[in-house]
Inverse folding.
């Protein structure tokens, strides 16, 4: 609440508070938040309802007796009078009443709840991702598969005309999957390589967070192994490592997407997004009479592209995750500084060029696009990534608009409401209340830049 001379003060309103509790109102509010977080861990989130005494506002300007006096409508209030406060509902969530009872003493309760909540949260965070001793998020490599060689072009000697021996597993919420899907869109490779869109559902997955959808008719027609089209992504990894694992043993690594599988041999090609994008670009380059004239990785510029990828990864793409998964103030401050630097630098760079590496679109632009579409409604909120909205950066905004104007299929490469919403639904240790905020669709978001 803010102090306003025309409104009753908090002390006046909440006279049902014990006097000694009111003197420590700041601590009470903090405790309330801590209790909600703590109860959220066990799946129970009680709500605290404080009942103010009914008061009449008397300090309105002359001639105004209530907030809606000019157009008074008896239906606007059950009591027929205007109030800043709502009536206590007859049915409300059960509460302990700890804050109003005064027992246990607040001086004991607050530090105990803070300590327990923090320790449980930190344990959960350390189980989720790797940290160093100072609480910095460490992104480990979970690369699987062999050294990828050029993808085999489809030919009629396989099981059917246009048959592809490969299958891609992608998940809409994942930015690393999104960059692969964006490459497919820009390179006009839809239909060239079958794509299975995974569903993020950690409660149904045996491991990790991805489950497979119901097999399509094309999956059945391709006559590939059942383990590659049913179950979850962990089952795909187990099947692809069947010749390495002991009987009954399961794959012990992280089951991550994107994932490119050779369905003929039942083996993993790679689960590294950068490598998949390189393979797709090379594949499109070699296709005869292919519609796409785009080369996302021009020959001779590989080192420049890799350096740019590393640069923006460190500052922005991974920087936002380092903010969100930091378990110390030091770790967060370092990551936040990188994000702010990256946003400023990218905005200045795009003031003098249409794309990140010059006049033509490249793989780096698509990687940045998968980050920027999640920045406003996921990273800035649940990850506490700083810098404000993308609309505050005119040159980044202009770059986004040009990108989707030149390559309109990119607008269909992401369901932004589902992608950003997934962070709030699945990362429950960062969102104990499991409330998902408003998220626009990608077209509305672009229009607002």
């Amino acid at each position: 609440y803010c102090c306003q001379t025309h409104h009753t003060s908090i002390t006046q309103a909440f006279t049902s508070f014990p006097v000694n509790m009111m003197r420590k109102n700041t601590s009470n509010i903090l405790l309330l938040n801590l209790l909600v977080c703590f109860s959220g861990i066990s799946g129970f989130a009680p709500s605290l309802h404080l009942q103010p005494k009914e008061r009449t506002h008397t300090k309105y300007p002359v001639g105004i007796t209530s907030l809606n006096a000019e157009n008074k409508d008896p239906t606007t209030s059950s009591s027929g009078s205007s109030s800043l406060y709502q009536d206590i509902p007859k049915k409300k969530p059960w509460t302990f009443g700890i804050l109003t009872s005064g027992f246990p003493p607040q001086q004991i309760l607050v530090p105990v709840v803070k300590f327990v909540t923090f320790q449980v949260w930190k344990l959960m965070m350390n189980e989720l991702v790797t940290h160093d001793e100072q609480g910095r998020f460490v992104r480990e490599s979970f690369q699987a598969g062999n050294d990828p060689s050029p993808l085999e072009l489809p030919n009629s000697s396989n099981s059917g005309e246009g048959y592809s021996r490969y299958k891609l597993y992608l998940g809409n919420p994942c930015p690393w999957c999104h960059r692969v899907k964006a490459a497919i869109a820009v390179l006009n490779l839809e239909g060239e390589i079958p794509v299975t869109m995974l569903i993020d559902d950690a409660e149904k997955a045996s491991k990790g967070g991805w489950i497979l959808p119901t097999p399509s008719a094309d999956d059945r027609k391709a006559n590939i192994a059942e383990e590659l089209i049913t179950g979850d992504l962990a089952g795909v990894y187990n099947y692809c490592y069947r010749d390495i694992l002991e009987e009954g043993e399961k794959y012990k690594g992280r089951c991550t997407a994107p994932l490119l599988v050779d369905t003929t041999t039942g083996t993993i090609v790679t689960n590294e997004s950068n490598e998949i994008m390189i393979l797709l670009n090379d594949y499109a380059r070699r296709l005869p009479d292919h519609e796409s004239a785009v080369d996302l990785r021009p020959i001779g510029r590989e080192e420049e592209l890799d350096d740019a990828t590393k640069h923006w990864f460190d500052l922005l793409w991974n920087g936002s995750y380092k903010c969100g998964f930091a378990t110390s103030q030091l770790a967060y401050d370092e990551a936040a500084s990188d994000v702010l630097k990256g946003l400023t630098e990218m905005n200045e760079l795009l003031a003098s060029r249409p794309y990140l590496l010059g006049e033509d679109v490249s793989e780096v632009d698509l990687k940045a696009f998968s980050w920027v579409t999640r920045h406003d409604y996921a990273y800035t909120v649940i990850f506490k990534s700083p810098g404000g909205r993308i609309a505050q950066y005119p040159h980044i905004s202009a770059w986004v608009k040009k990108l989707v104007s030149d390559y309109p299929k990119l607008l269909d490469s992401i369901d932004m409401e589902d992608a950003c919403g997934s962070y709030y639904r699945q990362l429950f240790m960062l969102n104990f209340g499991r409330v998902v905020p408003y998220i626009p669709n990608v077209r509305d978001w672009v229009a607002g830049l």
